[in-house]
Amino acid sequence: MTSKKREKRPPRYGVLLTIAYDGTDFRGYQRQTPDLRTVQAVVEEALQDFDPTASALRAASRTDAGVHALAQKAAFTTERAIPPIAYLKELERRLPPDVAIREAESCVPNYAPRFDARYKIYHYRVRVGPTRDPLRDRYHYHLHGAHFRPGARSDECAIAAALNLEALEEAARLFVGRHDFRAFRDTGDRRENTIREMSRVAIQTDREYPDALRIIVEGDAFMKQMVRIMVGTLLEVAREKHPPSWISELLCADATRSDAGPTAPPEGLFLAHTELGRQAHEKAEKESRAEEEPVRAPEDGQQSEADA
Q1: Strand 117-128 to strand 99-107: parallel, antiparallel, or no bridges (unpaired)?
Q2: Which of 1, 44, 111, 184 has CB atoms 3.0–4.6 Å from 75's, for a disulfide?
């Protein structure tokens, strides 16, 4: 009786990309139907042109249409043993001007950044003024007189006069900690666990532009449109529509989406940073060494790693 030889599977390698993009002309990060332009589809098309063995991208975040990223993390698996820097250079040549690869590094094959993210940092930019600014409004939420606090001039250009920044900062601090954020998710988000922990929610004025500020949100995980709803709610406090204590009332299991403020538009939002755990990278080295060594049967009383 002859036994068929087992076909040797080609070795696989992992590459982790850091991607920046201007989200204005994209329908979000995640691939959708072929007629919709998405960041994932554009990067994968460029990747396939250089490396047909590359898998689909596995990203840390799925940003919405119009949302930008300074440091989106996305990994893929390949059968090509080439330095990660080659992917950075080759993708740079193939990608359009509104997408760039900031970094490329080795990682474990099949690494999924989404499940290894320790925390993420988002920035939301706001500016005030009576007129549009075509060079800045792609990246800021523009507020004019109708959005200012009572008593502010309709042509006000100083954000400290247009909004109550003291109340805004007090309200932002109330988000910090572990809370129920069910009131701060899109109505289409049906996940059961709505508990999230924010380690930082802060207001930072712009030294270069007195008409602008950014809201910095750092947390362990986020739900659909969560940051934009948080921002829209905070701006209601800054407009003196509600007191800062309103935030505490919304961070409970009884609150609903309709209780919170409006969803701020996407153009002001940036995914600024994703902090990944180190376990996957340490595991990558271990698995690479294991692939080079012959497989030995476990001794009596021991379990193999695959069974553990």
Answers
A1: unpaired
A2: 111
Concatenated DSSP letters of the chain: ---PPPPPPPP-EEEEEEEEE-GGGSS-SS--STTS--HHHHHHHHHHHH-TT----EES--PPTT-EEEEEEEEEEES----HHHHHHHHHHHS-TTEEEEEEEEE-TT--GGGTEEEEEEEEEEEE-SS--TTTTTSSEEE-GGGSPTT--TT---HHHHS-HHHHHHHHHTT-EEEE-GGGS-TT---S--EEEEEEEEEEE-SS-TTEEEEEEEES---TTHHHHHHHHHHHHHTTSS-TTHHHHHSSTT--GGGS-PPPPGGGEEEEEEEEPSHHHHHHHHHHHHHHSPP-PPPTT---TTT-
pTM of the model as a whole:
0.86
Residue 21 and residue 51 in one domain: yes
- Judge if 21 and 101 occupy the same domain: yes
Give residue for tokens 């332009």: 37
Is residue 229 one of the residues assigned to a domain?
yes
Catalytically active residues, by annotation: 64
Give the domain range for residue 35.
13-115
Same domain, 133 and 156: yes
pLDDT digits (tens, 9 = 90+) for 120-129: 999 999 999 9
Kindly state the average pLDDT of the residues 262-267.
97
Average pLDDT over residues 14-22: 97
- Regarding whether 89 and 137 lie in a shared domain, the answer is no
* Domain presence at residue 297: no
d(CA 10, CA 221): 36
Neighbours of 237 (CB within 10 A): 25
Supply the CATH number for residue 156's domain.
3.30.70.660
- Is 104 in the same domain as 156? no
